[in-house]
Amino acid sequence: MQESVKNIFPEHLRHVFEECEISDDCLEEIRLRIEQPLLFFYGNEEWFLDRKQRKLTKKKEDAYRVTKEDLEQMFAFLSHYSFYAYEDEVRQGFLTLEGGHRVGLAGQAVMENGQVKSMRYIYFMNIRIAKERKDCAKKIIPYLLDQNSIYNTLIVSPPGIGKTTYLRDAVRLLSNGGNLMEGLRVSVIDERSEIAACHLGKPQNDVGIRTDVLDGCDKAKGMLMVLRSMSPQVIAVDELGGEEDFEAVEKVLY
């Protein structure tokens, strides 16, 4: 397990993880819920942590149960003991670790004027292990090319198939260029830090040499911002959803 992930856990669990020899290659998610079993999604299967035997197990009755103290200590590590420094990210429901791993957060939302102002009692976490699959999009690139640019392209699939992974690699390939094309100027609007996975402003994933990243910005606003300021040939976004997103796409097309 990568240090950036392991180090957000309490020390007594870090030692167990080391003995379990958990491999990042197969690890997809780690889920923590107060007073519930610690869950690993590992090799497309669900596993529990047997703390006494120091191994992963299928036996729920042997599973280590996450305590309130575990979660409070983990959030202190995540926020570097400064909740206010990360309040904007917490309001959006996630924090990004070095290496691009994303920690989803849930608890009690504090509302103000119909908007989420903050969050407290953060007793539910989902750690998504970031993986780059370089060249996974190589076969689709020829179908995107339209002379010196690309076709307007929408990637569609059910959840969990790998849309973001394909998008990230397509951005990298289009940005770097190759035998089929010159490299293109790409602007990524990374609202949830899942494409470039910036940590303190620096992309943790390889998104190419001609790629600019607008991290943590609303997609609809971000598309228009980079259009005016970065002269992109390609604009890439993830998870189009609301009407305002599609209105922004339409304006960009003009």
List the topology elements.
Layout: H1 3-6, H2 11-20, E1 27-33, E2 39-42, E3 45-50, E4 55-57, H3 68-78, H4 87-92, E5 94-96, E6 102-112, E7 115-128, H5 141-144, E8 145-146, E9 149-150, H6 163-176, E10 186-190, E11 198-199, E12 202-203, E13 211-215, H7 219-229, E14 234-237, H8 243-253
Parallel strand pairs: 10-13, 10-14
Antiparallel strand pairs: 1-2, 1-7, 2-3, 3-4, 5-6, 6-7, 8-9, 11-12
Helix pairs in contact: 7-8
What does this structure look like?
- The chain has 254 residues and is an alpha+beta fold.
- The chain is 28% helix and 28% strand.
- It has eight helices and 14 strands.
- A seven-stranded antiparallel sheet has the order 4-3-2-1-7-6-5. The protein has a three-stranded parallel sheet with strand order 13-10-14, with helices on both faces.
- α7 runs parallel beside α8 (243-253).
- It starts with a helix and ends with a helix.
- The mean pLDDT is 90.
